[in-house]
From TrEMBL:
InterPro entries, per the entry: Dimeric_a/b-barrel, NIPSNAP
Taxonomy of the source species: Bacteria, Pseudomonadati, Pseudomonadota, Alphaproteobacteria, Hyphomicrobiales
The species this protein was found in: Methylobacterium persicinum
Pfam families xrefs: NIPSNAP
Domain called NIPSNAP: residue spans: 3-105
Protein name: NIPSNAP domain-containing protein
Length: 108
């Protein structure tokens, strides 16, 4: 099992639009492609409070590549994402990391 940590840094004032997109659009596509979320968080205190951090759980990198690439290539997803950004971009930068649990981790 691996966990992918993704951090989306939003343009000023655009975090509500990103949260709305996940709530009303993205999560449906995650279900369609069997992408398992661990959780989502906004930043209360830290260097950037216009950020959304979330974790995805994968069996291995091959599963991640297959499911994520299918999701990203979905024409309906591409159209819906573009619609949410027709006025201006939402996300200015994305960081992602792949994490492997230790032998003493509660989540393994």
């Amino acid at each position: 099992m691996i966990v992918e940590m993704r951090v989306y840094y939003c343009a000023p004032t655009r975090l509500p639009a990103l949260l709305d997109r996940f709530r009303n659009t993205t999560l449906d596509f995650f279900k369609k492609y069997d992408i398992e979320q661990v959780g989502f968080w906004t930043t209360l205190v830290g260097p950037d409070n216009h950020a959304l951090t979330y974790l995805l759980k994968w069996d291995d990198m091959a599963q991640r590549e297959q499911r994520w690439n299918a999701f990203q290539a979905d024409p309906e997803w591409i159209a819906k994402r573009a619609e949410t950004e027709k006025d201006r971009p939402i996300v200015v930068r994305i960081e992602n990391s792949f994490l492997a649990p230790t032998d003493f981790s509660a989540l393994r």
